[in-house]
Amino acid sequence: MKKKTSIGSLSKVSLVVAALSLTMVTACSNNANEPAGNHASGASKFDLTFDKLETDLVPEPGASLLVWESKEARPFVEAIMKEFTDVYGVEVRMQELGTMDQIGKFELDGPAGLAADVITTSQDHLGKAASAGLILPNDEFEAATRSEHEEVAVTAASYNNKLYGYPIKVMTYAMFYNKDLISKPPATMEEVIEFSQTFNDPDSNKYGFMFDVPFFYFSYPFIGSTGGYIFGKDGTDPADIGLNNEGAIKGMELFASLRDKVLPISAGDIASDIKTTLFSEGSVAMNVTGSWFIDTFRQAGINFGVAPIPAVGGQDSVTLSQVNSWYVSAYSKYPNAAKLFARFASNKSAQLLNYELTGAVPTHKEAAQNAVIQADEITSAFYKQFSSSHSAPSIPEIGSVWVPMDAAMVEIWDGKDVKEVLDRAVKQIRDAISLNAKSPKPDSTKASF
């Protein structure tokens, strides 16, 4: 018999472990999915073609490129570098560097001529890079990028209505469920409530549904699904904050009701490590988290599936999403070659190859509709959730949002008045934005989650 975990014993370390786990949102790829095949051995399940792109753009004479990417992406990057060299005759090298670390290093190495020609990062660092002139716009392939990728991915790769990135892969969260405890995932929060009220046994740490209550990033479906939003105009207008509008209040009232009906635990005792342990023990039927825990649950021997988060207030659940994209250095000696590589390494065949070798969830619409990916329950579920997500804003003002809204989640969960708490949080956000506008901080674009 598996030893049951004590909520009390876990709560002492919950804040530290949860913070580390949440950092993985921007640092980790979805490489935990099992690859669909083995391209290198010729056993690919896809009909992949790598030809010259339809463009008049040609590499500069003698061009060679340096690419920065994370360790987890190496299998894909090495394969796509070889394909690009075979097609264009341009040598490409990769240097391992985490996506969270690239912009900081780039600020120093770019002007010195030591930086990569093509870097990889997510939208929470885009505003800083674009406003500082560190990267070039995606101009040559703008029309193709806009038409081929999901709109939320294009939004994530844009800043001030200008497209900079070449989207590569999706990062968001969805609902894992234990098939031995619940055979069919609920479609609505009302069904979650009904199941939990017959399944829960708090004395045995047994719960029907858990999510990271104290963290706004993971609790966002209770705001975004019912008409709330962070900033207006697709996350680009910080003067328009929709975190305390009528829809946000409606969704957060449902959120607050779950304390008594679904998860009778204080906010301080709900964190990523607790959920992960209890789900891995088979004590939790449904667990909302990110794809970076897939391998953890497989190793625990859980018979799990993944589904979109149940509808909130009668509306499809809307999560926050991150999108990793290629970006071309403004300091590259070979901008033509760099743009060609960024496009070549993010098109349909490249994204299918990336899925095949690392399990990355595509942003490319045709790639995502491939029969192999659609048959993959885990990847297709994350893609479906991504398709109805809101892109986390890329503007620097996003740095003023996380702390007040994290605090608001805790207060509301623990019984404070929804409207009063949200109004106060929005005021704190506006005050912080105003203060930062007068005295901007160097790392103001870095999200706290």
Label the overall shape: globular
What is the number of independent domains?
A: 2
Q: How many angstroms separate the termini?
A: 35 Å
The top-level CATH class of the largest domain is Alpha Beta
Question: How many separate helices?
Answer: 20
The CATH homologous superfamily of the largest domain corresponds to Periplasmic binding protein-like II
> Main sheet?
6 strands, mixed
The helix/strand class is: alpha+beta
| Helix percentage | 40-55%
Family: Belongs to the bacterial solute-binding protein 1 family.
Organism: Paenibacillus oenotherae
Protein name: Maltodextrin-binding protein
Signal peptide: 1-32
Q: In words, what does this structure look like?
A:
This is Maltodextrin-binding protein. Belongs to the bacterial solute-binding protein 1 family. Keywords: Cell membrane, Lipoprotein, Membrane, Signal, Sugar transport, Transport. Pfam families: SBP_bac_8. InterPro entries: Maltose/Cyclodextrin-bd (IPR006060), SBP (IPR006059). By secondary structure, the protein is of the alpha+beta class. The protein has 2 domains: 7-29 and 172-320 and 395-438, 3-Layer(aba) Sandwich (D-Maltodextrin-Binding Protein, domain 2); 39-170 and 322-391, Periplasmic binding protein-like II (D-Maltodextrin-Binding Protein, domain 2), CATH 3.40.190. It is built from 20 helices and 16 strands. The strands form 5 sheets. Strands 3, 4, 7, 14, 15 and 16 form a 6-stranded mixed β-sheet that branches. Helix 19 runs antiparallel to helix 20. The two termini are 35 Å apart.
